[in-house]
Amino acid sequence: MSDSQSFRDGLLASVPTLRAFAVSLSKNADRADDLVQETLVKAWDKQSSFQPGTNLKAWLFTILRNEFYSQMRKRRREVEDSDGAITARLSVHPAQDGSSDLNDFRKALELLPEDQREAIILIGASGFSYEEAAEICGCAVGTIKSRVSRARTRLQDILGITGEGDFGPDPVTAQVTSTIVA
């Protein structure tokens, strides 16, 4: 059996005892599972530093323990806001506006000709380059650029977008959120 195979088998065999130790430290099953997972990832990444023939379980418990204390130190630096004073000063744009805008965009997208819709989805949503999109569609790069340009123009017309000011909150919401933050 290779060293890598025996290391992997040792990791798997240690999971139940690692989890029990993690639960005893964190007092929370979900956090314990995350802690065990992080321990296994770190152990796998650092398996070259493990000395075969030494106690794997002890090495894993040390990693788990160190990870637990690192997380505890991080949590101490987090700001506690039990009365909600800090949270009250934060503001976000209403989620329904984004949802409504997305629905409007989907409807507008459906109104585009198929070739334009395909091109803008490949470039804008899927992240393909113009060259890749042209290859996928079996046409010239210039054709894809033209389709995307026409699709963007048509979407702006359908959605009534005239400039960057049309994105984000409406003027009333912007005024309200800016006075809350200030």
List keywords for this structure.
single chain; 182 residues; mainly alpha; Rna Polymerase Sigma Factor, Chain: A; Arc Repressor Mutant, subunit A; 2 domains; elongated; disordered C terminus
Give a verbal description of the structure.
This protein is mostly helical and 182 residues long. The protein has 2 domains: 3-77, Rna Polymerase Sigma Factor, Chain: A; 95-181, Winged helix-like DNA-binding domain superfamily/Winged helix DNA-binding domain (Arc Repressor Mutant, subunit A). Helix content is 74%, strand content 0%. The chain has 9 helices and no strands. It has helices at 3-26, 29-45, 56-77, 85-89, 95-111, 114-125, 130-137, 141-159, 171-181. Helix 7 (130-137) crosses helix 8 (141-159). It is elongated and about 65 Å long. 13% of the residues are buried. The model is unreliable at 176-182 (pLDDT under 50).
Care to give the gist of this entry?
By secondary structure, the protein is mainly alpha-helical. The protein is 74% helix and 0% strand. Keywords: DNA-binding, Sigma factor, Transcription, Transcription regulation.
